[in-house]
Amino acid sequence: MPGSYWDQRRDFGYYREVVALTRRHVPGGGSALDVGARGTEILGRLGWFSRRVAIDVVGMKARPGIETVEGDFLEYDPGGGFDLVLCLQVLEHLEHPGPFARKVLGTGRIAIVSVPYLWPGWVTDEHVQDPVDEAKLADWTGAEPVEVSIVEDLEMERMIAVYE
Questions:
Q1: Closest CA relative to residue 84, chosen from 100, 57, 108, 48
Q2: In contact, 148 and 137? CB cutoff 8 Å
Q3: How confident is the model at residue 2 (pLDDT cuts 50, 70, 90)?
Q4: In 3D, which of 11, 127, 64, 47 has the Cα closest to residue 3?
Q5: Is the peptide bond before 131 cis (omega within 30 degrees of 0)?
Q6: In this predicted model, what pLDDT tens digit does every residue of 48-59 receive, in sequence order?
Q7: Residue 7: which H helix or E strand, with range?
Q8: Full domain range(s) for residue 139
Q9: Beta strands in the chain (DSSP E)
């Protein structure tokens, strides 16, 4: 597929749903952190936030109005909490997602997490946790979401969970 990661995925429904959930749960904006941001530009769609930070283990291109941090989120000191923390399509890649997921929830007043929903293990070798369901996500986070959406893109579903 030609184009960047974001170019290939920018129109996915789960990104629209994440923005809608963010508007509903954090209408006043404030500060937002995208954990595992890599090549996505979802923070660019959250213009009502005064501070937007993207963190990933690999460097990212600079984007106007968005701070970028290259580093391991588990070692990252946010210097205080964020109003919103996004963690989209990251946990399924991690060998031990529990500590990571609990730090995501502990870093934000509101956290929005998305994972592939019930994808079979053969879809991609990059996912070490497939299939992911509600019970597995609850085990990783140690919490129950206040809202859950299931969104289909390209005949595959993603679960988006909101935590307070």
A1: 108
A2: no
A3: low
A4: 11
A5: yes
A6: 999 999 999 998
A7: helix 5-9
A8: 5-163
A9: 30-35, 49-56, 67-70, 82-88, 108-116, 147-153, 156-163
Nearest to 146 by CA among 130, 160, 163, 158: 163
Q: What is the CATH number of the domain that holds 104?
A: 3.40.50.150
Tokens of 93: 């890649």
Tokens describing residue 34: 């995208």
- pTM for the structure as a whole: 0.93
Structure tokens at 42: 């979802």
Instruction: Copy the structure tokens of residue 38.
Output: 């890599």
User: In this structure, what token pair is assigned to residue 112?
Assistant: 């929005």
Q: How many domains is the chain partitioned into structurally?
A: 1
Helix (H) or strand (E) run with residue 76 in it: none
